[in-house]
């Protein structure tokens, strides 16, 4: 059974029990008050009728009181009935009836006569279908002499009607009040349990992997606080799962890239070794006596050896990680370093009929000279390999405590799948002027920038712009001034 129905059933049961107890209590109070009122009325009638009987029996002294009572009994019964709107019966002290106009109630009158013989007055309230009749029996004394027993039966139907009307009215009011309380309790229970039901449904959705389900958390009560905490927990779980999924994708991509890398490495290592072995065997076996051929073979062996050496150095760089490479940081004149690297790279640029234009600003950086040199060489080397134009621009500016270096070249736009993972290891573009790259250059550049607390960004398009951002040295102000 749902908690909503449990609460509603419990509240309804409590209301019903309270209603019954309240109704019974009110009914008992009203009944007691009604009976007290009737008894008080009977006492007044009893006192008045006793005096009327005494007065009537003292008018004639020629007869005995018993004879006079017997003669005046009918008159007394009529007098009492007319004046007090009741029925009466006069009995002798031995219980014999002298006169009466009472019909019924013989049992109650007999009990009253028995009590009156002992000198006690008794009253009985008898409830009937049509109302209430009260019977009172009391002894008549004249001058201390026990003379007779008077029984009076009076209807209190109007009093009883008022009583029942009051009871019915109060019961109706109670029913209305308790019905309103039931409705209020139902709506309150519904408002309390509705957020709990929503949380239950949300838990089910989350268990099924749906973390986008909306949850309302209005108010400041305990349920609202629980909803807020649940929302935080849901968002945290969703964030953690997204992080795990992202890391899982990264691991998958990395493993895939590593596999591709080692496949490429195998091929890259095999190619120069095959060339070196081939030329070495030809020289060893004196296949040709042509000195020019031997010279070309030696140069080829040397160039392939250099290529193989560079390949192995790159592999060692990646396997060790930049953090293991020890180089002290010093204050660097970055403008001078940029110009040195550009002068060195102009030799390679001239090979492809390219021009490197330089426009730099002075500045001091605190860093590793060789690493920053490697950074600049890799970026400019990429510009040379991938440019479709004739000019490579290298500019720098100082702004807001940072030194900015911009390297621009015209190029075909970088494919989206490559651009989105451009700084991952083993990612490379195949339309370069050279095919010896393993896709490690930009990865190493990004690691170098991280070591210097800087940033590197690439703007894609027909004009490729690499932005390098590195913090100033403390003494940079002296240089700029």
From TrEMBL:
PANTHER family with a match to the protein in the record: METHYL-ACCEPTING CHEMOTAXIS PROTEIN, SENSOR HISTIDINE KINASE CPXA
- Protein name as it appears in the record: histidine kinase
Q: Which Gene3D superfamilies match?
A: 1.10.287.130, 6.10.340.10, Histidine kinase-like ATPase, C-terminal domain (3.30.565.10)
Q: What is the membrane topology noted in the UniProt record heading this document?
A: Multi-pass membrane protein
- Give EC number(s), comma-separated: 2.7.13.3
Q: Which GO terms describe its molecular function?
A: phosphorelay sensor kinase activity
Does the record bear Cell membrane in its keywords?
A: no
Origin: domain of life: Bacteria
**Pfam families reported in the protein's UniProt record:** HAMP, HATPase_c, HisKA
Q: Where in the cell is it found?
A: Membrane
Q: What class of enzyme is it?
A: transferase
Note the PROSITE patterns from the entry. HAMP (PS50885), HIS_KIN (PS50109)
Query: Which keywords appear in this protein's UniProt record, sorted alphabetically?
Result: Kinase, Membrane, Phosphoprotein, Transferase, Transmembrane, Transmembrane helix, Two-component regulatory system
- Cellular component annotations (GO), alphabetically ordered: plasma membrane
Organism of this sequence: Clostridium gasigenes
Reaction it catalyzes:
ATP + protein L-histidine = ADP + protein N-phospho-L-histidine
């Amino acid at each position: 059974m749902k908690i909503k129905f449990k609460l509603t059933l419990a509240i309804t049961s409590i209301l019903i029990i309270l209603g019954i107890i309240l109704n019974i209590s009110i009914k008992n109070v009203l009944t007691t008050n009604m009976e007290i009122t009737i008894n008080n009325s009977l006492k007044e009638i009893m006192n008045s009728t006793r005096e009327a009987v005494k007065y009537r029996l003292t008018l004639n002294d020629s007869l005995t009181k018993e004879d006079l009572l017997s003669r005046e009994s009918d008159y007394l019964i009529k007098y009492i009935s007319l004046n007090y709107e009741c029925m009466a019966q006069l009995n002798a002290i031995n219980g014999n009836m002298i006169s009466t106009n009472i019909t019924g109630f013989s049992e109650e009158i007999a009990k009253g006569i028995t009590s009156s013989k002992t000198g006690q007055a008794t009253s009985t309230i008898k409830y009937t279908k049509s109302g209430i009749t009260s019977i009172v029996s009391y002894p008549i004394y004249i001058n201390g002499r026990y003379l007779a027993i008077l029984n009076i039966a009076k209807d209190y139907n109007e009093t009883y009607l008022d009583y029942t009307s009051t009871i019915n009215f109060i019961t109706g009011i109670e029913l209305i009040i308790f019905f309103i309380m039931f409705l209020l309790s139902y709506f309150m229970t519904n408002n309390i349990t509705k957020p709990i039901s929503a949380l239950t449904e949300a838990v089910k959705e989350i268990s099924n992997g749906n973390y986008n389900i909306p949850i309302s958390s209005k108010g400041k009560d305990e349920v609202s606080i629980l909803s807020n905490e649940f929302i935080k927990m849901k968002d945290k779980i969703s964030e953690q799962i997204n992080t795990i999924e992202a890391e899982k994708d990264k691991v998958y991509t990395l493993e895939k890239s590593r596999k591709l890398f080692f496949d490429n490495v195998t091929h890259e290592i095999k190619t120069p070794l095959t060339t070196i072995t081939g030329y070495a065997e030809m020289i060893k076996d004196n296949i040709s006596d042509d000195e020019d051929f031997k010279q070309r073979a030696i140069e080829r062996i040397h160039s392939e050896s250099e290529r193989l050496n560079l390949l192995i150095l790159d592999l060692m760089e990646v396997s060790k990680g930049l953090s293991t490479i020890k180089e002290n940081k010093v204050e660097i004149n970055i403008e001078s370093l940029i110009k040195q690297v550009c002068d060195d790279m102009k030799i390679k640029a001239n090979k492809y009929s390219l021009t490197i234009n330089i426009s730099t600003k002075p500045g001091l950086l605190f860093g590793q000279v060789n690493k920053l040199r490697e950074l600049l060489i890799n970026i400019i080397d990429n510009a040379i390999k991938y440019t479709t134009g004739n000019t490579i621009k290298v500019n720098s500016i100082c702004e807001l405590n940072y030194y900015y270096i911009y390297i621009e070249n015209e190029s075909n736009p970088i494919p989206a799948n490559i651009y989105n993972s451009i700084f991952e290891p083993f990612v490379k573009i195949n339309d370069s002027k050279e095919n010896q790259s393993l896709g490690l250059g930009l990865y190493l550049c990004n690691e170098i920038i991280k070591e210097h607390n800087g940033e590197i960004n690439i703007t894609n398009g027909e004009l490729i712009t690499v932005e390098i951002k590195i913090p100033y040295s403390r003494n940079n102000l002296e240089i700029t001034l």
